[in-house]
Amino acid sequence: MQELHDAPLAPLTTLRLGGPATRLVTATTDAEVIDAVHEADSTGTPLLLIGGGSNLVISDKGFDGTALRIATRGFELTGTRLELAAGEVWTDAVARTVEAGLAGIECLAGIPGSAGATPIQNVGAYGQEVSSTITEVIAYDRRAGETVTLTNAECAFSYRHSRFKAAPERYVVLRVRFELEDAGGLSAPLKYAETARALGVEPGDRVPLGDAREAVLKLRAGKGMVLDPEDHDTWSAGSFFTNPILTDAGFAAFHARVRERLGDGLEPPAYPAGEGHTKTSAAWLIDKAGFTKGYGTGPARISTKHTLALTNRGDATTEDLLALAREVVAGVHEAFGITLVNEPVTVGVSL
User: Fold this and answer.
1) Catalytic site residue 32?
2) What is the radius of gyration, based on Cα positions, of the chain?
């Protein structure tokens, strides 16, 4: 187990932002992860968990405590059952399942970060969510001081949420188990219209797995959502805000604001989100509130490829990024009466 002091954290995040940690520990086995967590808990030391760093916004002052980098490895495929160690690189794991001819997570290609983070956020994109294929999550329960296995139902998945996100100080994900599908080399039925259009098929159709993955990677790259060290449009935390889910009454009020601001001819995006609720698009809200692609003149700006990504143009600070985020939140609320919620985890800062 590697240990460093006064260690820079910015290089461990996709935003390349944040100050140093008092202590940085890198764990390569589940036992090392548990030992580091137990040590921090038993001494009352603040603990920050870091996987791929793709969902973290860390204070410029850094983190006064132990930062634990989870670098465990493990890819076990038995038939259609997959078990991933928390530290496995997610994009690599998706590629390997596609190569193995198994469907279920192919449309989650190109998402940066580690496998252990996927159940926490219930990671999803292009019509797929990990909650539809996860069977169990093995985690260290800090409250009980023991390793537990949680079923899919016990994970309490919902849109970009889970039991783990609801209790961030309690669980440390160690391994994630999935049940994939052998569809003869074909993808799962395509649920996302944009993906289907890109592949020249209809929603609900299946396509060769490799084609589905490549189409998603191409779509993500076009939005600056595939990491590229040379492209500052990808120096982001991906989608910075979640798509708002509104009650029927809330959506009616929002619709009225849209008509008032933009006229009768423009309909806002609306997607079913359970009985009495409708989901709309954060990207649409941001754009229509006047924050278009490339917005900003400082070192932190909206991506030139996608309004949901807030980017570090190379020499930004965390405060620069947060100032932009707050401006967007205030502008959207003023325009449409909706308060956007940040998707990345903030450490030592808040909107």
Assistant:
1) no
2) 20
